[in-house]
Amino acid sequence: MPDDGKPDGRLIDTRPSVRPLDERRLAVLRAIVQDYVGTEEPVGSKALVERHNLGVSPATVRNDMSALEEEGYIHQPHTSAGRIPTDKGYRLFVDRLAEVKPMTAPERRAIRHFLEGAVDLDDVVARTVRLLAQLTRQVAVVQYPSLTRSTVRHIELVALTPTKLMLVLITNTGRVEQRMVDCPGAVGEGLLAELRARLNGMAGGCRLPEVPVILEDLPAVFEVSDRAAVSAVLATLFETLAEQNEERIMLAGTANLTRFGHDFPLTIRPVLEALEEQVVLLRLLGETADSEMTVRIGHEIAYEGLNSTSVVSVGYGSGDQSVAKLGVIGPTRMDYPGTMGAVRAVARYVGQILAES
Amino acid sequence: MPDDGKPDGRLIDTRPSVRPLDERRLAVLRAIVQDYVGTEEPVGSKALVERHNLGVSPATVRNDMSALEEEGYIHQPHTSAGRIPTDKGYRLFVDRLAEVKPMTAPERRAIRHFLEGAVDLDDVVARTVRLLAQLTRQVAVVQYPSLTRSTVRHIELVALTPTKLMLVLITNTGRVEQRMVDCPGAVGEGLLAELRARLNGMAGGCRLPEVPVILEDLPAVFEVSDRAAVSAVLATLFETLAEQNEERIMLAGTANLTRFGHDFPLTIRPVLEALEEQVVLLRLLGETADSEMTVRIGHEIAYEGLNSTSVVSVGYGSGDQSVAKLGVIGPTRMDYPGTMGAVRAVARYVGQILAES
DNA sequence: TTCTGGCACTCTGCCCAGTTGAGTGCCAGA
DNA sequence: TCTGGCACTCAACTGGGCAGAGTGCCAGAA
User: Fold this and answer.
1) pTM here?
2) How far apart are CA B279 and CA B310, in angstroms?
3) Fewest CB within 10 A of the end CB: N or C in chain A?
């Protein structure tokens, strides 16, 4: 059989549906995605050869389209209409056809400058999310640096009344959590000072999840009469640490949803609903790979209301390690290279800003 | 002239445009508002007499409508269509024709129960705003108890490094603000303790805006060598107090915007944009009267993007005095009595919850 | 084998005219 | 002052016809 001559014959191809897509077909798919993203209208063979110089005639492109449709990469709303990429088509585009489009130097300067103006953690997050929304013209989501990854900078105890303490936990990312503690008996200033010193001595600099383990035996160090109070404080502290679900998220750019498509109310409603559910957003970001950028397209997203959207997300961190995630939510029909470029750039700069402060 | 017999003749009427509207006309206006709010469609004379038993014929109602239109209370999208209330019409409806619809007993119980489950201030606000959005099926806004009205419960200073302090301000409403302070020189533990004691002694229990006045001369009490550090701390404290624009707001129910009307994208876009501007929302709530419920309708709202909406807002507080505002934003075509009832009820219960905690 | 030009076909979208029906304004009479 | 009747207006719907974009297929060229 003449097949033998081909280096990538069927038998050794591990990507079964890819083989029939030779270079030109991929180029056609890329062109379709690009055009559709631009015009928001099904794209036909003639328009395609006019805008991109593919070097072949519309008829040829039609054949390729036919094949692409066969494979499920594009789809036709009705006979005698142009083609629209499917989720699978976008996936292929993102994986093999698109380059992340880097920000230009002036853009990068602007990002950096804007973020540097922040005065505290809240402001950093607020600025980041606004910036991201503006750059991508989509909905941006930024998660506050998470408790699990960060370390204890300081633990403070304040006596409000003899039996009522306030516990303040400060992390290296600048986050502050405070709780009230009701102690079973009066707590003297001496005990308070000792407890404060020991807490900071033992737990200072530690990762938050490790703190309970480290402090486990602390009550034993104190006088029997004081142990109840110490335990109460510890219990509250551990509770604070454990409440990881208290992770906060900030959102911006919801007005951009209005640029979603023509069939508004139906599409936009579930998205708005999803955006109000912190849980959904957290899960969305939680599924992001730690190191590299994650793109989820349409039905790849577990949450049903977001099935007509795509999510581009990435971790960001103050050092080499990521402490939280951020991302963008937009229509599946979005400018992936541009969006990915913006997301990556913003994540990098927030990381730098956090590391500096 | 025969006019003399009428007790409310022109000369003593201080509401010029109201006189010609006798009882029945007002009833017609009320009926129009009610129907339009329900159906979202222009309401005609025939439908009106069918649904409400006005005791007169459609022709009569038509005359009344004509008069109402003359006065600017209703308006016709085009000849041979029904009538729609104008902003002025809604205004009259709210002022003179509508009763605030009280919540039913089970509803009140549910509200109370739901709010009682809150664990801290954040949670109270979060629950309140969700509840309000759900009850009214509109966009709800709740302002965090404001700094200006609240008092100092405690001020804490924590040395992070010899020259870097952390200042924590705790208010009686449970709100906590923290700032970093860079001191010009090292701050000893003794100085820190004295400063802490004096700050709390002098400012504890005071209203926040009064604090700067009270502490103005504090540096003079300390050794000359320490004054720079004290001043630095005070500067940061005053800054924190002054940042009233840092007032926070929580939002819920934006998905309800999709029920806004048919002409979506145009209406909803500016609203979403407005909702992302904390400043706009704060001003909106800021214009709320302290004690009573405020209703602003359509063009009565200063911000242009919200000209097709109405805002129902009211202050709430932990005691007799209001410490913050909350409210609802919806289409001018909204159920005013019901919305006002819900807003009032929720405000009352949040107040109670805050007072208890 | 692959590409190309040509051709017939299929749809949607748009325009146009005609019809329907809700709703009005006005008027004369109770 | 209210009512019934009547003519009028205008948006919304309907159906037919037309234009245009796009396809699929086929026979012939490279």
Assistant:
1) 0.80
2) 18
3) N
